[in-house]
Protein: 3-methyl-2-oxobutanoate hydroxymethyltransferase
Organism: Parvularcula marina
Amino acid sequence: MSAQTRSRRVTCADIMKRKGGEPIVSLTAYDAPMASILDPHCDFLLVGDSVGMVVHGLPTTVGVTLDMMIMHGQAVMRGAKTALVVVDLPFGSYEAGPQQAFESASRVMMETGCGAVKIEAGVYTADIVRFLTDRGIPVMAHVGLRPQAVNVTGGFKAKGRSNDETDTVLAEAEAAEKAGAFAMVVEGVDEALAGQVTNTVSIPTIGIGASATCDGQILVTPDMLGLFDWTPKFVRRFGNARERIDEAIEAYAAAVRNRTFPGEAEVYRVKKD
Ligand SMILES: Nc1nc(=O)c2c([nH]1)NC[C@@H]1CN(c3ccc(C(=O)N[C@@H](CCC(=O)O)C(=O)O)cc3)CN21
Ligand SMILES: CC(C)C(=O)C(=O)O
Ligand SMILES: [Mg+2]
């Protein structure tokens, strides 16, 4: 199913079928109006825990709560008509084990109506992925650079710098696939390693900073729109939202100051009865 011609919502099975086929297009979404703009262009929308950084101004994703994810998930579901919606499980809501993960993931599914959840997968999360999948919750894994582990890894560093690191990422990917994940995000890994992961697993890989070897791509929407000054290596700015917004605000401020706003067309002249 290609974008724009869809008569029903994209499913996890649709995404799985795209392995090795037409690249999967995805972006992050956090609110209803933006979701409605992204929807016709994307196969799936991710309600990423990056919301903490790009919407709430937190320094990392570690402070994001399950309630925040549910509230943004609900908003995105109201705007996204046909794209699959995937919601990130935030830090602290699944790592304790399958039971905790099921409680969090089932709340997300029930309260938002989204189609799948995503977890940052270490090898240890295989049990969690299996437990959720067996009980009706589709899981997207997230391997490589795992932002929720920033306090252990000491920074957002690309993976693949040593054989050890390469083996770990491959092991994470294979564990997630075997445990029943329907797709996986591969973040911040060396191009050769991304190709190795994509060739090894039978489920689609969605890259972010992981080269064109992946089966699809994702970016943080405000990054690709050019809303921020920061540009890590993997981001391409497809727009210049910051300048466009700045121009509009500047024009508004000038119009207020010189009293040309509100103008003739923008005032109420109501008849008295
Ligand atoms: N706005 C935003 N965009 C993202 O892509 C994003 C978030 N927030 N928050 C959650 C994670 C964190 N991510 C990040 C954050 C920083 C770098 C970064 O600074 N990378 C450097 C160093 C890379 C290296 O030396 O290995 C770079 O220059 O790319 C990478 C990924 C990706 N995710
Ligand atoms: C960068 C993507 C994959 C993500 O996990 C997020 O936006 O939180
Ligand atoms: Mg995330």
In short: The beta strands are 24-28, 44-47, 84-88, 116-120, 139-144, 183-187, 205-208, 216-219. The chain is about 40% helix and 15% strand. The longest strand covers residues 139-144.
